[in-house]
Amino acid sequence: MKYLKQFGVILTFSFVGELLHYVLPLPIPASIYGIVLLFLGLEFHFVALGAVEETGLFLIEIMPVMFIPAAVGLLDSWSILRSSLLQYLATALISTIVVMAVSGRVTQFVITKEENRNREKKKGGEQE
């Protein structure tokens, strides 16, 4: 029952994302609206982490299974893709490198910021 309740919370945010996608004329997928709203709910403690944690972990664990239909669709479309294979591979390679570089920079920034915050807390504690 706990998993159904947690899944219901996640689905509620997904539904609100669908509504926002319908109402707002922006080219943003509904799933992005939903995940951003869930993130904000967790960040500002409108939603407790325990309200979605176990189901979220389960969904992450089974995520690779969700790519099987897409992979089968690509195999089914091989005759169409074959003529542009080099372009697809180049796009995939370049976008992967860009995503890795940006993710690395953002991670370094966050780690540095957190280390600076911890140093400030230590200095503040020592001065008192």
Brief description of this entry?
The chain starts with a helix and ends with a helix. Helix 1 (2-23) crosses helix 2 (30-43) and helix 1 (2-23) packs across helix 3 (53-61). The protein is an all-alpha fold and 128 residues long.
Q: What would you report as the Rg, rounded to the nearest angstrom?
A: 21 Å
Helix-strand makeup class: mainly alpha
pLDDT < 50 stretches = none
Measured by DSSP, the beta-strand proportion falls in under 5%
Approximate helicity band: over 70%
**What is the 3D shape?**
extended
Instruction: Report the average pLDDT across residues.
Output: 92
Distance between the termini: 49 Å
Separate helix tally: 7
Please report the total strand number as a whole number.
0
The helix-strand sequence is HHHHHHH
**Largest beta sheet, briefly?**
none
